[in-house]
């Protein structure tokens, strides 16, 4: 047995150890303390540098971070920190000390941070405002101005998303500004990080004047002919590391611009140097071919934002539709350059304000949320322990592995962990217990047939396998759709959900089974008590199908009508925008108290966070609420907290953080999720099952949305993802029942279709109740303890669990029954044979 399971044991240990290593350090470490410990040579000298760096201040008299202080000292004294103090770190073949210092300090800063960073709601981050240069707008009409700002907003969103910052906020402010909030970004350590976002990325291809092939001396005044200008670029001598400045005389008018570039990709050449590979569109390909054909033997200057990047020789016509930008790029510089070339701005932007912002959730809210997550997880574990005793302990171990691996994979992707994300993990975890419940329920059936514990284990896993893989694959498909079509929270939920599918399969099918085999097969445990609920039931579900179906769809239509009646009122600030007010104060008030006072005054949507302008100790309060509610909200706060002496410093209208494109993508995500469900279920089962699955899923989505609005809640960004999560839960539950119907059709060839469906529903009823119960416990716990988005997500899942269970019993199966006109022969004409997987074989019972 040990030899047979060696690969599973090895795989499990490797993955768990990798996950543990991936999550270390769990918390951020002080940079100065960390780098001091990492220095391996000349420690006394380095400690003196650290002390000096910590005492440095900017021109305004504000202290600099140790990171920036060290970078400045090293540049001023031409120090090579890597060579002198960190020789054990490999920085490649970079010879220039300034570049080596930058690579070194960036690496050490990254290593000092927690592998899994927290979001704006838990930790805060940086916010800044970009403003369109008035000269760029000139006398343009308002409509064109708005269109250009909208285009710039899209470009900035694309650039932010490509930086790998999870769950950023990007929205319009007023009629010429864009606000960006980035969780976990620290401008004190990396002040140039924001520059990439405002670059216009103007790419020009210009001809170099013949005879000026890169001189080390600048041309004398008066020697530059009309129509030309002098541009320079830096070139590193890779032998010595010395940086040389080369001067070129270049045409002012470009031969072509970067408008013909289709995409830009950062690559490494054969010498290990980073370069930008350009692919042209059809028009750009022809234009570039014409330019290079007419200028063979000359140099083509590649100019980005008015700066010369490189000036390669044109040795022959280039007709392949691609080109390279070479230069002394670091990996980060190459990636950032490719990013801005892929998303060029047509209007220049300037940074008007930069702020460090505090967590948007109050301390007590964060504490209560953590408590609710702990309680809900313990309740889930307790639930499975009561029903499955020893099996419950093993399932709990699998759940622990599931969480660790999920967080580790998120960390490796650079994901930011926010409160809704944590809620998503907890809820996914509650639903993931379903795989274990399916296995245990199947084992229970085998034990009742008189089989041994070892035989029941193998049969239980084998018979549960097709339901596990089908339900998880359909849910995975929904997750992939979220990733492909969604952005922001929708995409984040999709990533979390997809990761959770793989980790759940690993935990249930590999880890849990491995532990059980090591305990059961050698006889370490000879009995596995399991508590039974709703066993041997004989409910006639189809008897009540028609009235239940009619009543539920009447409720659905009423819900849809109510949503239509409410119109745009169902949307929160994320979707429609609102007013943001900046307040000065004399006494700080906790964010939680501010939110309670706002809610009591009727401002349920109000959000608050404190911000501090970078380079200043002056802190202000930002309050965001619905349109035309800014001034009344300030009045309410002044009345509720007179000691704070709130004074409004200004009010601005903000645009939605969930734009029209994201809303459209959310709609298409739901549409394609339904199409995927129909296609997959029809392929794996047959079309009747697929119709039943789609009708029940659509029923669950519509009734969940309707009841959510009916209870006075509003849609925010996270709710789109939560609705899609309901689709995953609904189809998961339905497929388990369908899988049992398919099996019963083979095992009972003489049974009528009506009796067979009722039998399948009764056989899976115990699993349905236990799975729903675990998820219900989690949802109720989160609703009772948490507030805000987490509470909304939990409320959505609460409705989804109830409607999902109902639809599996009274929507999906009856639709399948009616589609086939109650005749099993009609099913058998279309029914596919259950596929046999090579890694599971086939049981006698299923043949």
TrEMBL record:
<keyword id="KW-0812">Transmembrane</keyword>
<keyword id="KW-0811">Translocation</keyword>
<dbReference type="InterPro" id="IPR048634">
    <property type="entry name" value="SecD_SecF_C"/>
</dbReference>
<comment type="subunit">
    <text>Forms a complex with SecF. Part of the essential Sec protein translocation apparatus which comprises SecA, SecYEG and auxiliary proteins SecDF. Other proteins may also be involved.</text>
</comment>
<feature type="transmembrane region" description="Helical">
    <location>
        <begin position="544"/>
        <end position="565"/>
    </location>
</feature>
<feature type="transmembrane region" description="Helical">
    <location>
        <begin position="690"/>
        <end position="711"/>
    </location>
</feature>
<protein>
    <recommendedName>
        <fullName>Multifunctional fusion protein</fullName>
    </recommendedName>
</protein>
<feature type="domain" description="Protein export membrane protein SecD/SecF C-terminal">
    <location>
        <begin position="351"/>
        <end position="517"/>
    </location>
</feature>
<keyword id="KW-1003">Cell membrane</keyword>
<dbReference type="Pfam" id="PF02355">
    <property type="entry name" value="SecD_SecF_C"/>
</dbReference>
<dbReference type="InterPro" id="IPR048631">
    <property type="entry name" value="SecD_1st"/>
</dbReference>
<feature type="domain" description="SecDF P1 head subdomain">
    <location>
        <begin position="247"/>
        <end position="342"/>
    </location>
</feature>
<keyword id="KW-1133">Transmembrane helix</keyword>
<dbReference type="InterPro" id="IPR022813">
    <property type="entry name" value="SecD/SecF_arch_bac"/>
</dbReference>
<dbReference type="InterPro" id="IPR005665">
    <property type="entry name" value="SecF_bac"/>
</dbReference>
<comment type="function">
    <text>Part of the Sec protein translocase complex. Interacts with the SecYEG preprotein conducting channel. SecDF uses the proton motive force (PMF) to complete protein translocation after the ATP-dependent function of SecA.</text>
</comment>
<dbReference type="InterPro" id="IPR055344">
    <property type="entry name" value="SecD_SecF_C_bact"/>
</dbReference>
<dbReference type="InterPro" id="IPR022645">
    <property type="entry name" value="SecD/SecF_bac"/>
</dbReference>
<dbReference type="GO" id="GO:0043952">
    <property type="term" value="P:protein transport by the Sec complex"/>
</dbReference>
<dbReference type="GO" id="GO:0006605">
    <property type="term" value="P:protein targeting"/>
</dbReference>
<feature type="transmembrane region" description="Helical">
    <location>
        <begin position="497"/>
        <end position="524"/>
    </location>
</feature>
<dbReference type="InterPro" id="IPR005791">
    <property type="entry name" value="SecD"/>
</dbReference>
<dbReference type="Pfam" id="PF21760">
    <property type="entry name" value="SecD_1st"/>
</dbReference>
<keyword id="KW-0472">Membrane</keyword>
<comment type="similarity">
    <text>Belongs to the SecD/SecF family. SecD subfamily.</text>
</comment>
<feature type="transmembrane region" description="Helical">
    <location>
        <begin position="793"/>
        <end position="819"/>
    </location>
</feature>
<dbReference type="GO" id="GO:0005886">
    <property type="term" value="C:plasma membrane"/>
</dbReference>
<feature type="domain" description="Protein export membrane protein SecD/SecF C-terminal">
    <location>
        <begin position="647"/>
        <end position="821"/>
    </location>
</feature>
<feature type="domain" description="Protein translocase subunit SecDF P1">
    <location>
        <begin position="150"/>
        <end position="208"/>
    </location>
</feature>
<keyword id="KW-0653">Protein transport</keyword>
<feature type="transmembrane region" description="Helical">
    <location>
        <begin position="769"/>
        <end position="787"/>
    </location>
</feature>
<keyword id="KW-0813">Transport</keyword>
<dbReference type="Pfam" id="PF07549">
    <property type="entry name" value="Sec_GG"/>
</dbReference>
<dbReference type="GO" id="GO:0065002">
    <property type="term" value="P:intracellular protein transmembrane transport"/>
</dbReference>
<comment type="subunit">
    <text>Forms a complex with SecD. Part of the essential Sec protein translocation apparatus which comprises SecA, SecYEG and auxiliary proteins SecDF. Other proteins may also be involved.</text>
</comment>
<dbReference type="GO" id="GO:0015450">
    <property type="term" value="F:protein-transporting ATPase activity"/>
</dbReference>
<feature type="transmembrane region" description="Helical">
    <location>
        <begin position="464"/>
        <end position="485"/>
    </location>
</feature>
<feature type="transmembrane region" description="Helical">
    <location>
        <begin position="666"/>
        <end position="683"/>
    </location>
</feature>
<comment type="similarity">
    <text>Belongs to the SecD/SecF family. SecF subfamily.</text>
</comment>
<dbReference type="InterPro" id="IPR022646">
    <property type="entry name" value="SecD/SecF_CS"/>
</dbReference>
<dbReference type="Pfam" id="PF22599">
    <property type="entry name" value="SecDF_P1_head"/>
</dbReference>
<dbReference type="InterPro" id="IPR054384">
    <property type="entry name" value="SecDF_P1_head"/>
</dbReference>
């Amino acid at each position: 047995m040990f030899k047979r399971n060696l690969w599973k044991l090895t795989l499990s240990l490797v993955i768990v150890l990798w996950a543990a290593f991936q999550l270390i350090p769990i918390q951020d470490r002080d940079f100065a303390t960390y780098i001091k410990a990492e220095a391996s040579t000349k420690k006394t000298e380095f400690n003196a540098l650290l002390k000096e760096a910590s005492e440095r201040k900017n021109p305004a008299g504000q202290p600099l971070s140790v990171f920036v202080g060290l970078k400045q000292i090293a540049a001023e004294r031409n120090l090579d920190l890597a060579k002198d103090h960190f020789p054990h770190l490999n920085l490649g073949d970079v010879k220039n000390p300034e570049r080596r210092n930058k690579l070194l300090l960036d690496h050490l800063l990254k290593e000092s941070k927690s592998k899994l960073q927290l979001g704006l709601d838990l930790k805060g981050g940086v916010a800044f405002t970009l403003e369109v240069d008035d000269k760029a707008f000139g006398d343009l009409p308002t409509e064109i101005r708005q269109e250009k700002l909208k285009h710039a907003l899209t470009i900035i969103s694309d650039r932010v998303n490509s930086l790998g910052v999870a769950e950023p906020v990007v929205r319009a402010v007023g009629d010429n500004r864009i606000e960006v909030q980035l969780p976990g970004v620290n401008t004190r350590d990396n002040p140039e990080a924001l520059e990439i976002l405002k670059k216009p990325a103007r790419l020009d291809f210009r001809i170099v004047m013949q005879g000026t092939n890169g001189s080390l001396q600048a041309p004398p005044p008066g020697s530059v002919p009309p129509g030309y200008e002098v541009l320079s670029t830096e070139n590193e001598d890779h032998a010595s590391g010395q940086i040389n400045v080369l001067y070129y005389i270049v045409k002012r008018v470009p031969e072509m611009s970067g408008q013909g570039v289709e995409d830009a990709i950062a690559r490494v050449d054969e010498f290990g140097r980073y370069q930008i590979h350009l692919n042209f569109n059809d028009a750009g390909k022809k234009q570039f071919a014409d330019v290079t054909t007419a200028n063979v033997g000359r140099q083509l200057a590649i100019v980005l934002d008015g700066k010369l990047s490189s000036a390669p020789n044109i040795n022959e016509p280039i007709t392949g539709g691609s080109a390279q930008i070479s230069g002394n790029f670091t990996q980060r510089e190459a990636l950032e350059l490719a990013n801005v070339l892929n998303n060029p701005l047509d209007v220049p932007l300037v940074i008007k304000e930069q702020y460090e912002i505090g967590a948007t959730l109050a301390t007590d809210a964060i504490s209560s949320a953590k408590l609710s997550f702990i309680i809900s997880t313990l309740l889930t574990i307790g639930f499975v322990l009561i029903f499955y005793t020893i099996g419950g302990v093993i399932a709990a171990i699998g759940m622990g592995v599931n969480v660790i691996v999920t967080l580790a994979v998120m960390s490796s992707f650079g994901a930011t962990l926010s409160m809704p994300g944590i809620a998503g993990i907890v809820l996914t975890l509650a639903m993931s217990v379903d795989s274990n419940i399916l296995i245990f329920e199947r084992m229970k059936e085998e034990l009742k047939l008189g089989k041994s514990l070892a035989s029941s284990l193998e049969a239980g896993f084998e018979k549960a396998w097709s339901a596990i893989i089908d339900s998880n694959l359909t849910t995975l498909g929904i997750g992939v759709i979220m990733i492909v079509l969604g952005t922001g929270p929708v995409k984040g939920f999709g990533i979390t959900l997809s990761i959770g599918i793989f980790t759940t399969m690993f935990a249930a099918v590999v880890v849990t089974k491995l532990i059980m085999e090591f305990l059961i097969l050698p006889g370490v445990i000879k009995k596995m008590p399991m508590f039974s609920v709703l066993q041997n039931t004989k409910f006639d579900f189809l008897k009540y199908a028609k009235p239940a179906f009619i009543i539920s769809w009447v409720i659905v239509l009423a819900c849809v009508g109510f949503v239509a009646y409410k119109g745009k009122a169902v949307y929160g600030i994320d979707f429609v925008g609102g007013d943001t007010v900046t307040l000065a104060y004399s006494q700080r008030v906790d964010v939680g108290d501010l939110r309670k006072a706002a809610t009591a005054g009727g401002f349920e949507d109000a959000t608050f966070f404190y911000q501090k302008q970078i380079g200043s100790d002056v802190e202000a309060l930002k309050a965001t609420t619905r349109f035309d509610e800014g001034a009344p909200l300030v009045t309410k706060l002044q009345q509720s907290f007179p000691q704070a002496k709130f004074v409004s410093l200004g009010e601005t209208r903000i645009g939605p953080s969930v734009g029209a494109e994201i809303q459209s993508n959310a709609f298409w995500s739901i549409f394609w999720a339904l199409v995927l469900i129909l296609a997959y279920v029809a392929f794996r089962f047959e079309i009747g099952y697929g119709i039943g699955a789609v009708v029940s899923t659509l029923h669950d989505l519509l009734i969940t949305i309707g009841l959510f609005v009916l209870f006075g809640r509003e849609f925010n960004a996270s709710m789109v993802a939560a609705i899609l999560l309901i689709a995953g839960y609904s189809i998961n539950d339905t497929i388990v029942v369908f899988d049992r119907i398919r099996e019963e059709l083979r095992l009972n060839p003489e049974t009528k279709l009506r009796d067979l469906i009722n039998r399948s529903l009764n056989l899976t009823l115990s699993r349905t109740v236990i799975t729903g119960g675990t998820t219900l416990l989690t949802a109720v716990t989160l609703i009772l303890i948490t507030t805000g988005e987490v509470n909304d997500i939990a409320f959505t899942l609460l409705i989804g669990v109830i409607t999902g269970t109902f639809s599996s019993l009274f929507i999906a199966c009856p639709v399948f029954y009616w589609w086939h006109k109650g005749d099993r022969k009609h099913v058998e004409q279309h029914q596919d044979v259950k596929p046999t997987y090579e890694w599971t074989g086939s049981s006698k019972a299923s043949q």
